[in-house]
């Protein structure tokens, strides 16, 4: 019998912005508050965290002025509140990408193995001009994570039975999404290739795209494999929920 996972949404901050920033101009002028999502997942044996929120809210506000974070939304505290895990109990951290709102809590997980695409790691230390404000080296450099805790992936990879990452470039060149086999179906924790479910279900580009063609290819991959999705900033999901947005076949 194959391993099946339980996945829970964990809010690690918020952003107030114009809806159109995440839906390719649709909804222009509509101000919304979106969460910043992490995910906690377990197969009954392993404890996995996908994305770790913000390290320094003031740093993040330079690129996202509408960003906010309460003390209980700092990733280690939010994970503890949601599922009762102490940071040193977490076995695996998967970074969908290394932007500062998705890797900011990495340093708290001292015993974890970290998984990122090699391309993303290399880009994070030498970003192109439009991306540079979103990378904070203090989230992932040697002071945050011991070099030998990193696993640098080169493509789709099975991490554990029932847990794979697939490459989903577009938002960044080395972006990946985590796929979990659950009793309800395959859940994709998408990171920011899908800010909101409307991106994949409506074929609408998300915020910050550096590879347009790759973005639409990544949407197709998610629709091909996933039944449900937890996008990086979807407001239609509740904190602590195990119920995610259905993926609509094109």
- The count of β-strands is 13
Which class best fits the helix and strand makeup? alpha/beta
**Global morphology:** globular
Overall pLDDT confidence: 96
CATH topology: Metallo-beta-lactamase, Chain A
Annotated CATH architecture: 4-Layer Sandwich
Strand order of the largest sheet: 4-1-2-3-5-6-7
The CATH superfamily is identified as Ribonuclease Z/Hydroxyacylglutathione hydrolase-like
H/E element sequence: EEEHEHEEHEEEEEHHEE
Q: Give the termini distance in whole angstroms.
A: 31 Å
- Spans of at least 5 consecutive residues with low confidence: none
Strand content: 25-35%
Percentage of residues in helical conformation: 10-25%
- Structural domain tally: 1
The biggest beta sheet, please? 7 strands, mixed
Tally of helical runs: 5
Rg over CA atoms = 16 Å
Give the CATH level 1 class.
Answer: Alpha Beta
Give the structure's gist in a few sentences:
The protein is of the alpha/beta class and 250 residues long. It is built from 5 helices and 13 strands. The chain has a single domain, classed as Ribonuclease Z/Hydroxyacylglutathione hydrolase-like (Metallo-beta-lactamase, Chain A, 4-Layer Sandwich), CATH 3.60.15.
Secondary structure blueprint with pairings:
Elements: E1 6-18, E2 31-42, E3 47-50, H1 57-63, E4 67-68, H2 75-83, E5 92-94, E6 113-117, H3 118-124, E7 150-153, E8 157-160, E9 163-167, E10 176-182, E11 185-191, H4 197-202, H5 212-225, E12 228-231, E13 245-246
Parallel strand pairs: 3-5, 5-6, 6-7, 11-12
Antiparallel strand pairs: 1-2, 1-4, 2-3, 8-9, 9-10, 10-11, 12-13
């Amino acid at each position: 019998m194959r391993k099946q996972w339980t996945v829970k949404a964990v809010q690690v901050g918020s952003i107030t912005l114009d809806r159109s920033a995440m839906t390719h101009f649709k909804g222009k002028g509509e101000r919304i508050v979106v969460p910043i999502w992490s995910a906690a997942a377990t197969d009954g044996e392993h404890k996995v965290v996908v994305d770790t929120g913000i390290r320094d809210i003031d740093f993040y506000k330079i690129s996202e002025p509408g960003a906010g974070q309460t003390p209980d939304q700092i990733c280690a505290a939010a994970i503890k509140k949601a599922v009762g895990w102490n940071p040193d109990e977490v076995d695996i951290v998967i970074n969908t990408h290394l932007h500062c709102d998705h890797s900011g809590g990495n340093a708290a997980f001292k015993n974890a193995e970290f998984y990122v695409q090699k391309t993303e790691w290399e880009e994070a230390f030498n970003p192109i001009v439009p991306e540079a404000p979103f990378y904070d080296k203090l989230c992932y450099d040697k002071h945050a994570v011991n070099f030998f805790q990193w696993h640098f992936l080169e493509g789709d990879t099975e991490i554990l039975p029932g847990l794979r990452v697939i490459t989903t470039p577009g938002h960044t060149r080395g972006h990946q999404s985590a796929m979990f086999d659950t009793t309800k179906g395959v859940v994709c924790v998408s990171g920011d290739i899908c800010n909101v479910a409307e991106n994949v279900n409506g074929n609408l580009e998300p915020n910050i795209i550096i590879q347009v063609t790759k973005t639409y290819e990544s949407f197709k991959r998610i629709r091909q494999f996933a039944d449900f999705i937890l996008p990086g900033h979807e407001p239609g999901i509740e904190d602590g929920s195990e119920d995610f947005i259905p993926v609509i076949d094109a």
